[in-house]
Amino acid sequence: MVIIKSVDIFKALADENRLRIISLLLTKELCVCEIEASLEMSQSNVSRHLTKLKTSGIVDSRKDSQWVYYKISENFRDNNMELINYLIATFRNESLLIDDIARLQKLDSREFICK
Q1: Around Cβ 56, how many Cβ atoms within 10 Å?
Q2: Signed CA dihedral, 14, 18, 24, 28: sign only
Q3: pLDDT exceeding 70 applies to what percent of the chain?
Q4: Are the C-beta atoms of 23 and 42 separated by less than 8 Å?
C-alpha cells in the first residue's frame, strides 16, 4: 500500500481544473478524450492536470489500445472516504461542476467514441 501525503493531496486539490476532473472521475472511469470534451479543454491541459493527480496518488490510469483511462485510485478511495464524501457533497452545489457532468451525460447518450 502506498501512503499518500496530505500535503500532496491538498496541493493537487488546489486547482479548479483538477477539481473538475475529480468530479467527473467520481462518476466513473473515463478516457482522456471524454474528459477533454466534458470540460471543453485541450488534450495537453487535461493531460497536465491528470499527471498531477496521478503523481499525488489521487487517480490511477490504464492503457487500452491507444486510449488511456483514468479513475479515482482505490488506495485513495479506501484511505480518504471522508474527504471524498465532502467533495461529493460540495460538488453538488457548484454550477460549473454540474454543467461538466451534464456535458458528460450528453456524451454518454450519443455513444461518444474517442478518436
Answers
A1: 20
A2: negative
A3: 90
A4: no
